[in-house]
Amino acid sequence: MTTAQFNCQYCTASLLGKKYVLKDDNPYCVSCYNHIFSNYCEKCKEPIESDSKDLCYKDRHWHEGCFKCTKCNHSLVEKPFAAKDERLLCTECFSNECSSKCFHCKRTIMPGSRKMEFKGNYWHETCFVCEHCRQPIGAKPLISKDSGNYCVPCFEKEFAPYCNFCKKVITSGGITFHDQLWHKECFLCSGCRKELCEEEFMSRDDYPFCLDCYNHLCAKKCAACTKPITGLRGAKFICFQDRQWHSECFNCGKCSVSLVGEGFLTQNKEIFCRKCGSGVDTDI
């Protein structure tokens, strides 16, 4: 290129003695270069001219003086930053705005630090502690009660009920009998030691018995049929002096008519209706 030909590639004005900019080996006067090739700043919307530094991030451009945190307005030049919803934020503002807050101390859980999550809330690892012993729970099993979290040993010590039989902690389920608690496998018949958790049972002197043992050991016998009187499922029975009868067995010893709710007479161990008893010597 000769001196006579040293002109702006766009407007053809002579560049002799003037500032110019080379673009793809072609010279441009400063005015044409700024007009054709300058990027526009994301913040101030003005062109970033050739005498200014153009800072670029993901096809977006800023003047050096405009490249700032959109929240605190501190310069981000040569500093770490993050982007959220197309906004540039310094690391501190990004952490305050976007990072989780500790449920205990309410402070930001900084990116890169370990956080604990439980029931939709987050904790610093050092803040996620047992409510009783104040030791970090970490990934160990825990039990939540009211507004606190407890390691298993502390929860068992403070809150868990104990089995009336084996005296060990009942962690789930259990049987309640006379306001006392048992493990299901510890709630046994006082006679044969059979498990009663899914069985019908009777009580005698605050001790549980299966039906067989209760009938054999505890139940009174019907004076008529000699079978046990249990009162199970609302069954009714009749008592007179030191004897008992099933209601269906309380019948006249001669005509077999039911005496339930009726007057009756006795002779020795027999009971009679008034009609049948009028011809015998009776006790009442």
Automatic annotation (TrEMBL):
Under CDD domains, the record lists: LIM1_FHL, LIM2_FHL5, LIM4_FHL
Q: Where in the cell is it found?
A: Nucleus
Listed A to Z, the keywords are: LIM domain, Metal-binding, Nucleus, Repeat, Zinc, Zinc-finger
Q: What is its main location?
A: nucleus
Report domain LIM zinc-binding positions: 39-99, 100-161, 220-283
Domain of life (superkingdom): Eukaryota
* Pfam families on file: LIM (PF00412), LIM_FHL2-3_N (PF25076)
Looking up SMART domains in the UniProt record yields:
LIM
Tell me the InterPro entries matching this sequence.
FHL5_LIM2, LIM_FHL1/2/3/5_N, Znf_LIM
PANTHER family recorded = FOUR AND A HALF LIM DOMAINS PROTEIN, FOUR AND A HALF LIM DOMAINS PROTEIN 5
Which purpose does this protein serve, as stated in its record? May be involved in the regulation of spermatogenesis. Stimulates CREM transcriptional activity in a phosphorylation-independent manner.
Q: How does it assemble?
A: Interacts with CREM (via the third LIM domain). Interacts (via second LIM domain) with SPAG8.
This chain's protein is named Four and a half LIM domains protein 5
Give the encoding gene's name.
FHL5
